[in-house]
Design a protein that fits this description.
It is found in: Cell membrane. This protein has about 350 residues and is mainly alpha-helical. About 65% of the residues lie in helices and about 5% in strands.
Amino acid sequence: MVLSASSYNSMLYYDDPYHFFKRQLIWSTLGIFCMFVVMNVDYNKLKKYVKIGFVITILLLVAVLIPGVGKEVKGSTRWIGVGPLSFTPSEVVKLAIVFYFALVISLEPLKIKTIKGFGTYLLILGVIGALLLKQPDLGTTIAVFGTSFCMFIAAGAKISHLFALAITGILGVIGLIIQAPYRLERITGFWHLWENASDEGYQTVQSLYALGSGGLLGMGLGNSRQKFLYLPERHTDFIFAIIGEELGFIGAFLVLSLFFLFIWRGFRIAILAPDRFGSLLAVGLTSIIAVQSVINMGVVTGSLPVTGITLPFVSYGGSSLLFSLIGVGMLLNISKFSRK
């Protein structure tokens, strides 16, 4: 799908229809290799590296904000360049926060039920969120908070604490939207989509055109019209629209079903994990994919305002694919120790 969605763009700007496809192929090969490596290392042996890894992740989030270190693309500074390649520390932080919370909560399982303990975890989340918002990256911030919320539920946090967190999060998002004019424009464009079809609502409208054109069976693989520069971010954030256009409702439903299957199996691994650390780790790793996929498909179908979140495993993006596959490797690792 990356090849199909990006071929015209690649030919136009790089004189090579396989430009993005080849880069994604390299990242996917590296990701699958890392997945097999992680799958065969006992996850309990990683405990001693979790805290230092978390500190390094925070330092990377700080480093990306330093001029000359972080790379600015389309007004956001989210990338750190390493030679011809670049990666996004925000992808690392998703795994780091899951590992960290899984470890500290499993070591002191009753702490999360106290106001002090729960407040400590919220403070850590606040630091991570502030660093992500400086990039700015509201989409990843929401994904991190959503994943952490799922882990807190699984860990047995009090309903009153979770309710307070949810209300605070909603108010925080509203405040951030009001604060930034471009975010407010996205919301107004979302509320009055067709009135703003050539302005703030353009991206969503073009996405709906793609999905509508696909019908039941689609226009055929490679036959998308929206990929001819009509739909922005066609091979990244909005690749699900191209899937709907080329493979129709059947193809889109198949992708949706695969995500449901993945989430079901992930939570099953969490339920059957042999210890609390493995269980919380599986919940977090599964929730990352669940939250991102729900937000992405919600945006593409016009159910949610536009945010910069890719579709896991499908969208173009090396860092996202690499760390998603590492997460899959860890899930497979935990499943090897499952109780019968």
